[in-house]
Inverse folding.
């Protein structure tokens, strides 16, 4: 596969990756939750049985969240291969050969893949679950890491 310069000791821990994901999610949540609330995204949540927003609505909110994610993190991704969460946790994304990927590769190969794959009917949820489980392998690389040919490393 892409074992060029693979060094398992230079990989970020699963916990630091999870922590960075949580920090990034909280930051986006601060902006998206009020928009979702005031646009009716939570309507029907407590109905019996609960009703879900339309797929179109969910996609619009996801696109809005993705756009905010890009705006908030673009400069960090461009300069250091980091989101705010990765910066806080002291990790960054690099190509498997150790070079810094372009911000376009990070945003559209890595993050868009991770964000939009669950919307594919039937197989999206399965692929998304497999992607997350792959982080427990020796290489600690999820499917979106493999698609973008990246790995997450601690900042030295």
């Amino acid at each position: 596969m892409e074992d060029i310069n693979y060094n398992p000791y230079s990989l970020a821990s699963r916990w630091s990756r999870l922590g960075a994901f949580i920090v990034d999610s909280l930051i986006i949540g601060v902006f998206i939750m009020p928009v979702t609330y005031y646009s009716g995204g939570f309507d029907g949540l407590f109905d019996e049985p609960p009703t879900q927003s339309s797929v179109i609505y969910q996609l619009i909110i996801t696109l809005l969240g993705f756009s905010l994610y890009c705006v908030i993190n673009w400069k960090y991704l461009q300069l250091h291969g980091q989101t705010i969460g990765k910066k806080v946790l002291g990790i960054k994304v690099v190509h498997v050969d150790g070079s810094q990927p372009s911000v376009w590769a990070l945003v559209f190969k890595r993050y868009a893949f991770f964000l939009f794959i669950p919307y594919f009917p039937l197989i999206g949820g399965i692929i998304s679950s497999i992607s997350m489980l792959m982080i427990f392998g020796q290489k600690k690389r999820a499917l979106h890491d493999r698609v973008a040919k990246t790995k997450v490393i601690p900042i030295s």
The longest helix spans residues 55-80. Strands lie at 91-95, 150-154. The chain has a mean pLDDT of 85. The first strand starts at residue 91 and ends at 95.
